[in-house]
Amino acid sequence: MSPEIETLSASPAFDLTEDQRAVRAMVRDFAEREIRPIAMQIDESHDFPAATVKKMGELGLMGLFVPDTYGGAGLDYVSYVIAIEELSRVCASHGVIASAHSSLVCYPILAYGTEAQKQKYLTRLASGEWIGAYCLTEPNAGSNAANQQTTAVRDGDDYVLNGTKLFVTNAGPSHVLVVYASTERALGPKGISAFIVEDGTPGVQKGKKEMKLGIHASDTREIAFVNARIPKENLLGENNKGYSVALATLGGGRIGIAAQALGIAQGALEAAVRYAGERKQFDRTIGEFDAIRAMLADSAIEVATARLLTYQAAWLRDQGRPHVKEASLAKWHSSEAATRCANWAIQVHGGYGYLAEFTVERLWRDARICEIYEGTTEVQKMVVAAQVLKEQAVETPARSPSGS
Ligand SMILES: Cc1cc2nc3c(=O)[nH]c(=O)nc-3n(C[C@H](O)[C@H](O)[C@H](O)COP(=O)(O)OP(=O)(O)OC[C@H]3O[C@@H](n4cnc5c(N)ncnc54)[C@H](O)[C@@H]3O)c2cc1C
């Protein structure tokens, strides 16, 4: 790694371990060699990058935190976020493909799956042989994910699924879906269950690929379930406990999206620094002008704070310590930081920044989704507010009625 890049990308709250540094070096090398040359082209064509995703599987990037007993790399969550950051620094589509697959599919099977489910599904997912997708969002269950209308009705040895899921990342190429459905409508969120659904199950219908503002190479589709029969062995976790699975999954998923946003912000800062050092106007490089330097400095603090929050949340998760608030803080801040940094990077590039030929335009389009999926910024603020109010209640016991 060049000293320049080391300085730009390594200011964590703590020293990284040898393993974590090795992951960064390996993923950066891979992303620069294999992904950078196709990033522009797949943004234009909207093609899912099957060949590089296959290589990511071979490198262990599709199962980084999955124990090696289930075919994963057996590394920690900090290593995982470093990998997502490095992929996204070059191509945010690759970042979200790996992130949705790992955080939203490998994790719940690892944490809640039976041994048989882990042997059958997790081993293939962790090696990248199979790709996973996560089906929670519905037409009337977006920010309010508890409002699940998809139903799963027990019939003999099967559950019969009916309903429609929207915006499913990795939908087209997926082999395995983790699907949430209402098993007991009257119980609301306490009547939701999670299921592992195999691609090719009769009644599972994938829609057309959505055309999006950014992350073009990430395959997003609607998936409908029409009397799809799922064997009872594919219930993931306990019956009616699926909403807890979804929330625990999103806790880690949000750190993955924070890492994706961090990578985009880092890529934007690097592009802006590079251009500011090259472009000349008024017989000086534009990096000599205070207005440009201010944008670079503003970007630097956004990247540094995004990195601190993201690594801290991942580290807390590795320690098995509470991290609901920290995951939301990281996701909220990093995603807005990515948009701001990409915006400044365009400004530093002037008119060239607005051209599709220059990477910063793609970074800006790719950044925007981070403020929306896996809980919008408004939802992250709701989570953070609920957590700080809870902390405050513990620290300041209620006063007695006399006010003493
Ligand atoms: C490209 C892409 C990929 C995605 N991938 C997946 C996936 O793989 N799996 C999956 O299940 N889902 C996925 N999603 C769905 C995504 O998580 C949802 O779009 C997101 O959670 C928001 O839900 P919604 O679109 O229904 O918006 P809504 O919930 O309708 O929100 C609309 C607006 O209202 C605001 N709002 C809503 N409720 C409140 C409130 N109580 N207080 C204040 N403001 C509020 C929101 O913040 C937002 O600004 C993806 C979405 C996209 C665009």
UniProtKB/TrEMBL annotation:
Keywords: FAD, Flavoprotein, Oxidoreductase. Residues 133-227 form the Acyl-CoA oxidase/dehydrogenase middle domain. Signal peptide: none annotated. Residues 17-129 form the Acyl-CoA dehydrogenase/oxidase N-terminal domain. Its cofactor is FAD. GO terms for molecular function: acyl-CoA dehydrogenase activity; flavin adenine dinucleotide binding. InterPro entries: Acyl-CoA_DH_CS (IPR006089), Acyl-CoA_Oxase/DH_mid-dom (IPR006091), Acyl-CoA_Oxase/DH_mid-dom_sf (IPR046373), AcylCo_DH-like_C (IPR036250), AcylCo_DH/oxidase_C (IPR009075), AcylCoA_DH/ox_N (IPR013786), AcylCoA_DH/ox_N_sf (IPR037069), AcylCoA_DH/oxidase_NM_dom_sf (IPR009100). Residues 240-388 form the Acyl-CoA dehydrogenase/oxidase C-terminal domain. Belongs to the acyl-CoA dehydrogenase family. This is Acyl-CoA dehydrogenase. The lineage of its organism: Bacteria, Candidatus Eiseniibacteriota.
